[in-house]
Amino acid sequence: QVQLVESGGGLVQAGGSLRLSCRASAGTFTKYAIAWFRQAPGQEREFVAAISRGGGRTTYAESHKGRATISRDNYKNTVYLQMNSLRPEDTAEYHCAGRAAADYEIPIRTPADAEYWGQGTQVTVSS
To answer: Of 35, 41, 103, 106, whose CB has the highest number of CB atoms within 10 Å?
Structure first.
């Protein structure tokens, strides 16, 4: 079992950047592929990006390609989501999620795929 804690959210102006962090406080972090999802009020939770357990493979939602970068530091038990050129429509609560995976496998691309969730961190982008 892994426990995930997000941080790094906040209020930013359109065009700005934020780096979100997802830190594992328990469990064997390197067993898990990690993904970021987001959920705006009244909307379904949607996939943003994911990374394999070793960090060698990543995947992004089309809407985030070129604006987001996911990375991980397994020595720090942390996955990062760097978001640039933020837009008001990026306003949402961002959650990280984990699923046990083989090397280079990313079996977590929908909310139903996740085995573990963090509580979320709010990102608000003002126009």
So the answer is: 35
With contact defined as beta carbons under 8 Å apart, do 32 and 100 qualify? yes
Q: Residue 66: is its pLDDT beyond 80?
A: yes
Mean pLDDT of 2-18: 96
Q: Cα-flanking dihedrals φ and ψ of residue 31, to 5°?
A: -80, -15
Residues pairing with 68 in the sheet: 83
**Whole-Å CA distances, 122 to 15, 25, 26, 31, 51:** 17, 20, 23, 27, 21
Average pLDDT over residues 85-89: 96
In sequence order, the β-bridge partners of residue 11 are 124
Residue 47's contacts (CB-CB under 8 Å, 6 or more residues apart) are 35, 36, 37, 61, 109, 110, 111
Contacts of 8 by beta carbon, 8 Å cutoff, 6+ apart: 18, 19, 20, 21, 121
User: Which residue is associated with the tokens 């609560």?
Assistant: 93
Residue at token pair 């126009």: 127
